[in-house]
Design a protein that fits this description.
With 303 residues, the protein is of the alpha/beta class. Helices cover 51% and strands 13% of the residues. Strands 3-2-1-4-5-6-7-8 form an 8-stranded mixed beta sheet, sandwiched between helices. Helix 10 runs antiparallel to helix 11. The longest helix is centred in the middle third of the chain and has 29 residues. The protein is globular, with a radius of gyration of 21 Å. The chain starts with a strand and ends in a 10-residue tail after the last helix.
Amino acid sequence: MRIAMVGLGRMGMNMARRLLGGGHDVVVYNRSREKTDDLLKEGAVGTYSMEEMVKRLSPPRAVWIMLPAGKVVEKFIGRLQELLEPGDIIVDGGNGHYKDDIRRAAQLEEKGIVYLDAGVSGGIWGLSLGYCTMVGGPRDTFEHLEPVFKTLAPEEGYLYCGPAGAGHFVKMVHNGIEYGLMQAYGEGFEILEASPYGKDLDFAQISHLWNRGSVIRSWLLELAEDAFERNARLEDVEDFVEDSGEGRWAVQQALETSVPVPVISASLFARFRSRQESSFSSRLLATLRHAFGGHGIIRKSED
């Protein structure tokens, strides 16, 4: 299947590579041409304008967007809808808000363009392990693009979630849960660090141990083990933890529907706290975000 991938950042670049490895024809477009040039050498069809990108696709054209949520996506879709034709497909695979998806789907439907929202999880490891993919929009369009989802995801790692917005809604809740899990790990290791045994405990060994049959085993603990092996107490990491939006949206949604979410909301506020005071748990959260998603990390200066 031929599909365009727009936005060759941490996720988009490797998603394009995984599709190429799965035998798809991938047309790529990026604001800066260097990454397009790189994928051109790897077998992609490189394009250097939106007009050229659309011309290299055949109806029904499918364009997958991996751009920062908000104004950037709005501007791009606004321009793209002028170039596409009825029956063509836009997939937003970034971290969008489900209410924006509902609005966009209705607007594009007026022009005969089909819109899918795809919540994607896998971070910088997705190229080798696959991307867990949650899809919203018309089911028949999902089925048309199912070969793409099947290639991107690990086995049984993609799901049609419902109409417009459902994919990003499920991904939003996924990220809220992620916040809570990471916060629990951070607090647990901080208790160990502050204990009478703290100086003698090997956190890498404990992470490894807990991943051998315990009820709290997880991929996050594997990442923690790797981080502790490289730096036993994460001394070189500033305890400043960013949030990318979905945690806030999850808490806002909980407020709108009167659902109590004490763990997710507390984990969100803990990230705010990390920007004001120092803590070991925040250093671990920052390290884990960097490990699974390639998110920025602030290293302490040596002086």
